[in-house]
Amino acid sequence: MPKNKGRNAFFFFMIHWRKREEAQGRTFPDGLKDVQRDSKCTLEWQTLTKQEKGHFEAMAKNDKIVSQVSVKDKKTTLGESLNMLKQKEKEAEMFIKNMQENIKVIIDSAVNLNFLAELKFCFVHVNWFFCKIVNNIPEYFPAEYTFGVFSLKNGIEDVHHTIVSAKIPLGYRREALEISQNSHKIPVEYEGGQIDFAVMYDRLADFLESRKLVDQYPYLYTRQAFTREVQSLITKLCDAAQEDKEQFKIYELESLFTHLANELFKKREDRDMDTIPVYAHKIFENYTYRFDKGSECHFHKYVDGGSEYCSKSVLQQWAWTLCDEFCAPLDIKIQPGVHQPDRSELDQFDNQHLMSMMSNLQVKDVHQSKSDIDGVLSMTGVSEQHRLKVSGRTYEQEMRRRQESKPIQVIDCSKFQDSASNDASCSNNFIDKWASKKPIGEKAEYVCFLI
């Protein structure tokens, strides 16, 4: 690739001269070639004073510097500057380093002042409809989000929960329907949710206002796998309200767990201090509390199959996980419904009550309304509801299929072989002999094993 040379002072003078002449009505079909061939342009350049030429020489010097910088700044195949990517990588490393230091200072200060049990943390979880790439950065369109204030002593103390009903942009509706169907089950453009992102920001700011420390919002903790979704939500809310997104710091929940464990696992003999970083990531992937009911939002309480994805329920699962690990070292008494799920209602049912309920159970064919989710078409243009309706057998069809089916008759030819030399002929003769005993027209299936 040839070296990108800078343009000289005469080049910038020609551009200036052409603009002036075009303003007077002249045209230059070949562009700067016509200007360069024009004797008037050359003569005027030669008659310029040194001071007048200095203006164009300064422009040429700046252009040369820019040209040299552009050559050194290599690009990726996506057009991204390698220097910019390296700078972002350094910033990310510095952010992680500052995050670890800040969390450690918070935990150590709380331990020294003996109020770690009362120390409050802010959790956040986001469900989303679709993801699009803007300037090589993924943007997630939120469906639901929850911010919760947590302490080891009181569990989840306060919650800010919102379902988003904003209009889905053109071209992303199908993806939104599929994501909803396979996870949180929130309908697209749900009527009971919020529409204006600026209003959502104001309500979130009001919720976090009382938790500010020295005019700074509390750190927002979420799982490492969800940081992009949360960052995208914060960006969307701040852009709508024209506020600075840098005022919100998103930290990893696993890092918080690690620093808590480094301090509190010293009092537990059943935990290995050397495996804390790995354990911190693994513990939040367990399904210990995923299917416990009662902590979901009002919408997911009445939706089948989506409660375990509810943002409010996910925050409660994180809280129970932390309480299960760290309440005992702090001598905190476990309270059902606060530090662990309240399963007392389930314990009230004995076998007699359960059998009574099962005997009175009635299964009815309830007509399901055709929602947007049921109407999602596959690549062949068929909805899931239609596929199940057409391909499924009725009870009468299944009974008729079983009655008309013929059993498979297994023939072990090895029992009828006289010698190893005539295996094939023996097998064929036996099958012909067996088949000749069957009435003409009667269907039968044979499986022959040769040993």
Automatic annotation (TrEMBL):
Entry keyword Iron: no
Residue stretches making up the HMG box domain: 3-75
Cell location: Cytoplasm; Nucleus
Annotated GO biological process: cell differentiation; male meiotic nuclear division; negative regulation of DNA-templated transcription; piRNA processing; regulation of miRNA-mediated gene silencing; spermatogenesis
Superkingdom classification of source: Eukaryota
Cellular compartments per GO CC: nucleus; P granule
Coiled coil regions in record: none
GO molecular function: sequence-specific DNA binding
SUPFAM superfamilies assigned: HMG-box
DNA-binding region: 3-75
Entry similarity comment: Belongs to the maelstrom family.
The protein's name: Protein maelstrom 2
Organism, scientific name: Cyphomyrmex costatus
